[in-house]
């Protein structure tokens, strides 16, 4: 289970607008069910609450920010303010920190989460199981598009396609240039994966279009393809 600690020192702001913008970015993170966002009760004692929350408690945004803080899971142990303490608390390195100004902290930059994009990056860097992070296609396996050029490898590619099309992260397939010694020849940023049937006579290849939207997602899908379909 991944756990992220709200870091009091990273909830600092130059002014009220800066504070609210930072909190809105945190509130906009779409948390996975198997992750926990935690707070230490000392969060309520930091100065920004006196400046921007308690003095304007009747404001709608102020109440929403306070509700967001309140719904975070509380922990009563010693305040976790560094990675060593986080590792001990979680019994793993699958942890990170929430905030919007980490300039005065010594937290690894990859564990500093201040928005949805940084959260997704943290997930793919540290989650031991990445499959649940991926989006499955809604296309039925038998309706997925494929195109294989008329050459001697068409039979082999078609046979492989009849297996790989059942992978829920694959959308399309088409024949690609021959050659390669590795099953996964190349991973593209746009969700495409080049797979080589390296056991065939001319190393026939197929370009797979996946649900990956960036390199990290596509890398995770390539790992699944390698694990489940390299036969």
Backbone CA Rg: 23 Å
The tally of strands reads 10
Whole-number count of domains: 2
Overall residue-averaged pLDDT value: 93
Order of helical and strand elements: EHEHHEHEEHEHEEEEH
What is the topology, as strand order, of the major beta sheet?
3-2-1-4-5
| Derived structural class | alpha/beta
Low-confidence region ranges:
none
| Helix content, binned percent | 25-40%
Largest sheet: 5 strands, parallel
Task: Note down, in words, how this protein is organized.
The protein has helices at 16-27, 47-52, 60-71, 83-90, 116-126, 154-164, 215-229; strands spanning 2-6, 35-40, 73-75, 95-98, 112-113, 145-147, 170-176, 184-187, 192-197, 204-210. It has 231 residues and is of the alpha/beta class. The protein has 2 domains: 2-128; 141-229, no CATH class. The protein has a 5-stranded parallel sheet, sandwiched between helices.
Record keyword descriptors for this entry:
231 residues; alpha/beta; 2 domains; five-stranded parallel sheet; five-stranded mixed sheet; 7 helices; 32% helix; 20% strand; elongated
Q: What is the secondary structure topology, with strand pairs?
A:
Layout: E1 2-6, H1 16-27, E2 35-40, H2 47-52, H3 60-71, E3 73-75, H4 83-90, E4 95-98, E5 112-113, H5 116-126, E6 145-147, H6 154-164, E7 170-176, E8 184-187, E9 192-197, E10 204-210, H7 215-229
Parallel strand pairs: 1-2, 1-4, 2-3, 4-5, 6-7
Antiparallel strand pairs: 7-10, 8-9, 9-10
Helix pairs in contact: 1-3
């Amino acid at each position: 289970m991944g756990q992220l600690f709200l870091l009091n020192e990273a909830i600092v702001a130059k002014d009220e607008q800066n504070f609210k913008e930072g909190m809105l970015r945190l509130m906009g993170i779409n948390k996975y069910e198997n992750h926990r966002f935690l707070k230490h009760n000392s969060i309520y004692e930091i100065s920004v609450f006196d400046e921007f929350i308690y003095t304007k408690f009747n404001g709608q945004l102020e109440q929403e920010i306070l509700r967001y803080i309140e719904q975070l899971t509380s922990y009563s142990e010693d305040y976790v303010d560094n990675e060593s303490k986080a590792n001990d608390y979680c019994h793993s390195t699958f942890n990170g920190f929430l905030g919007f100004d980490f300039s005065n902290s010594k937290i690894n930059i990859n564990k500093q989460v201040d928005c949805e994009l940084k959260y997704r990056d943290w997930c793919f860097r540290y989650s031991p199981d990445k499959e649940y992070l991926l989006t499955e296609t809604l296309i039925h396996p038998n309706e997925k598009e494929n195109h294989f050029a008329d050459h001697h490898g068409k039979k082999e590619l078609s046979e492989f396609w009849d297996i790989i099309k059942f992978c829920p992260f694959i959308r399309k397939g088409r024949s690609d240039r021959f050659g390669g010694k590795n099953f996964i020849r190349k991973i593209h940023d746009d969700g495409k994966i080049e797979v080589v049937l390296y056991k065939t006579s001319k190393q026939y290849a197929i370009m797979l279009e996946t649900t990956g939207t960036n390199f990290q997602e596509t890398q995770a899908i390539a790992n699944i393809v390698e694990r489940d379909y390299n036969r």
